[in-house]
Write a structure and sequence with these properties.
three-stranded antiparallel beta sheet; four-stranded mixed beta sheet; alpha+beta; 9 helices; 296 residues; 11 strands
Length: 296
């Protein structure tokens, strides 16, 4: 599999892949289970990804690769890292293992601080390959890989490698910087983790803040009890009409009268829930086991 990355043209921003990102989180919960997801509670430490100009090139690359392997809980996988001229940031040869051959762009010989970002995507490919988890379309599968790398604790490096100013445009992976921030914030909410101190790129931190704001809004959408007054009023109006009144509403109504139900996505795993329209109630997501306070 190949990976986008390195100096490019203008960086895409916003949340154009959000639907696929959310589907990717759902797929991870279904494949790994809530306990399996929470087993990735130890993220890759910044010190383990550090690779300076004084380090031996090949020994340092192997050390960083091994740290990413441990973070993604693949202790029996060995990454053999080679450098060569190539258009892509990196590529991995997927096979039965235990050895996997990763080729990375020659630019990482000198831009060593970004090697961990490239490796986190490729090792995530190995993990998903072993899990038998993939999406049919190649573009969607690459988004799944980025999402898995971030949500499982190693891919924050992909966001930290983002830089953009008047002279430089650099981004790795297939998600936008804001989408990387969104996934990182979703992980932080689940595991009580604050990645703010990890960033070395100011622009990456800004993108994380924008992504975190959207993740926070997921937890304040009607019919969740944490929704604000305006969202509650709109929901009440839509409930009387039996249908959402505007674009962007994630809830849908089924049936009429006493049998009316509302469906909406869980803010944690994004699986759709179906609840009776019956006032305040507490619901437990059957997939991620999150208990949600609702006002349907």
């Amino acid at each position: 599999m190949t990976q986008k990355g390195g100096p490019t043209g203008p960086v895409e921003h916003g949340f154009p892949h959000l639907e696929t990102v959310r589907a990717s989180v759902t797929a991870l919960f279904r494949r790994l289970s809530p306990d399996g997801i929470r087993a990735y509670d130890t993220p890759l430490a910044p010190a383990d990804a550090a690779f300076g100009p004084g380090d031996d090139l090949h020994l340092g690359a192997q050390r960083v690769a091994s740290a990413v392997v441990r973070a993604l809980r693949l202790p029996d996988a060995r990454m053999v890292v080679a450098f060569r001229p190539m258009q892509e940031a990196a590529t991995v040869e997927l096979a039965a293992g235990p050895e996997y051959f990763v080729e990375v762009n020659d630019r990482f010989r000198t831009h060593r601080e970004d090697l961990g970002a490239a490796l986190s995507h490729e090792v995530a490919h190995v993990l998903l390959h072993r899990l038998g988890l993939r999406f049919p379309a190649t573009a969607d599968d690459e988004i799944l890989t980025d999402t898995a790398a971030v949500y499982l604790g190693a891919g924050w490096l992909l966001l930290d490698a983002y830089r953009e100013d008047r002279l430089t445009h650099q981004k790795f992976g297939y998600l936008t910087p804001e989408e990387f921030g969104y996934v990182l914030a979703q992980r932080g909410r689940l595991l009580g983790e604050d990645p703010s101190a990890w960033f070395t790129s100011p622009r990456a931190y800004e993108a994380y803040v924008r992504g975190r704001a959207l993740a926070d809004r997921d937890h304040r959408r009607a019919p969740l009890a944490a929704a604000g007054p305006a969202a509650r009023l709109r929901y009440a109006r839509d409930r009387r009409a039996g249908a959402p009144s505007g674009r962007g509403a994630q809830y849908r109504f089924e049936g009429r009268g006493a049998g009316m139900r509302v469906t909406f996505p869980c803010p944690v795993c994004h699986q759709r829930l179906r609840l009776p329209v019956a006032g305040p109630l507490r619901a437990r997501c059957g997939l991620c086991r999150t208990v949600l306070e609702c006002a349907t």
